[in-house]
Amino acid sequence: MNSAFPHLIDLNDYPVAWWKKVVELGERIKNDPAAFAHECDGKIMATLFYEPSTRTQMSFQTAMIRLGGQIIGFDNPANSSVAKGETIKDTTKIVSSYSDILVIRHPVAGAAKAAALTADCPVINAGDGGHLHPTQTLTDLLTLKIEKKKLSGLTIGMCGDLINGRTVHSLCKALSMLEDNKFVFISTPELRMPAYIKDIIKANGSSFEEVDTLEEAIGRLDVLYMTRIQQERFASEADYLAQKNTYVLDRAKMLGAKKDMIVMHPLPRVDEITVDVDDDERAMYFTQAKYGVFVRMALIMTMLSEKKQTELLKGKVYGGVRCGNPRCITNHEEYLPKSFRSSGDQTLLECEFCDERKLI
Ligand code: NCD
Q1: CA–CA separation, 342 vs 352, rounded Å?
Q2: Mean pLDDT in residue range 317-323
Q3: CA-based, 20 to 30 A from 338: which of 64, 100, 274, 317?
Q4: pTM (predicted TM-score)
Q5: For the structural domain made of 316-359, what CATH number should be given?
Q6: CA distance 288 to 67
Q7: Smallest CA separation from ligand 1 atom 8, residue
Q8: φ/ψ of residue 186, rounded to 5
Q9: C-alpha 227 to ligand 1 mean position (Å)
Q10: Atom of ligand 1 nearest to the CA of 292
Q11: Can you name the CATH fold of 11-133+290-305?
């Protein structure tokens, strides 16, 4: 199913050369933001945030304002018609007729794709549940390009909530497409990287290992990407408390790291990095958040000039087969087609909205 508009739902919908160009443009903007101050004069961006956000929402808004455009939207769906039971379909249909580009964050996986199916303007996924977060990945790539001077040949440690962390899912999918990157996943057995992401890494020819402690990995890393335990995505408070505080990066652990390792974090931080690490020159998380504005400026400009239509659904509906993931948008918005891709193995279907697998 094609949409008449270009959308950014998953970075991997575009070739590597496309995202490299966005990142390069982001770097040019960083070096001379004033030169881009009128790129979006007269344009309107809508931000529909169904889930809390500080950086992503404000950096998108700042980006549009710095490009000369204007913004509309909500950051609390309780103050919109969503509270009256309006579907994503209807909200998107209307808001996309008011705006030139729409940015959506939602607590349910696949929601951005659902919005794109009905939108009359480009849609950008600003985070869909525990699934993907492509614009954080663009921010991370710009950070690596500027601070490590390369996007390949890196050993990247990812630590914390790897099962629920959408930032690390998108980042793995992207970095595994670039040459010679190696991943070290540091988590408890309960919070390991999802199998579908590990399969993508392998299929892209990259390698990964899984370890239990920060101490056994930190000395080999070029980049340490810390993540928050995603409290809101746990089934119960007890499950969350069992994972809380397992990984804490502090000055003592930083002593075991390379002199040029950088520490990244999409933020917000809860307790996984002690504040005394902030003064270490390898701590890059605040700089990373700042770079997010430049790369989002680049992305807005790119999407508004992009001609490519997006093929949103490539698979098909299999009779009464539904996605088994209760946190998939197809189980929240009934009108959506229950569309699946079939992977190599014909009995294994992958939901086109949340990527969850199902045996038939
Ligand atoms: C992340 C997110 O929302 O996924 N934050 C962000 O966008 N910068 C990370 C998180 O919430 O832990």
Answers
A1: 10
A2: 93
A3: 100
A4: 0.97
A5: 2.30.30
A6: 20
A7: 266
A8: -115, 110
A9: 9
A10: 8
A11: Rossmann fold (3.40.50)
